[in-house]
Amino acid sequence: QVQLVESGGGLVQAGGSLRLSCVASGRTFSSYPMGWFRQAPGKEREFVATISWTGSTTRYADSVKGRFTISRDNAKNTVYLQVDSLKPEDTAVYYCAAGSPGANRYYVPSDRRDYNYWGQGTQVTVSS
Fold first, then answer.
1. DSSP 71
2. Gap between the Cα atoms of 72 and 35, Å rounded
3. Radius of gyration in angstroms for the set of CA atoms belonging to the chain, rounded to a whole number
4. Distance between CA atoms of 74 and 71, rounded to whole angstroms?
């Protein structure tokens, strides 16, 4: 069982930045690929970014590529999402998720069905 707690969301002007954090419980955090998803009002939850359990491989949605950066610190059981050059359309609740442990070191799933554990989310609001 893995429990995830996100933080770092807030209200920011367009062009601004935030750093989202997700702290995981459990001793085997380092074996899980980790992902960030987001859900805007009236829309489905969508993939944002993912990182392999080693941290060596990352993958991004086209809409955030070049603006968002995912990273992890396995010693701190934490995954981060640095969000820069924010746009109003980035407004959403951002969720952290953990995938299947022990996967290939290059495994970076973008389908939310490949994630087994989810946090409660942190709100990001970007004003124009």
1. E
2. 10
3. 14
4. 10
Contact predicate 105/54, CB 8 Å = yes
Query: Which helix (H) or strand (E) segment is 69 a member of?
Result: strand 68-73
Residue 59 has, within 13 A of its CA and on its CB side, a CA count of: 14
Write the CA distances from 78 to 27, 57, 90, 125, integer angstroms: 12, 16, 22, 23
| Cα distance between the two ends of the chain | 40
pLDDT in tens, 35-91: 999 999 999 999 999 999 999 999 999 999 999 999 999 999 999 999 999 999 999
Neighbours of 24 (CB within 10 A): 23
Handedness of CA 34, 35, 36, 39 (dihedral sign): negative
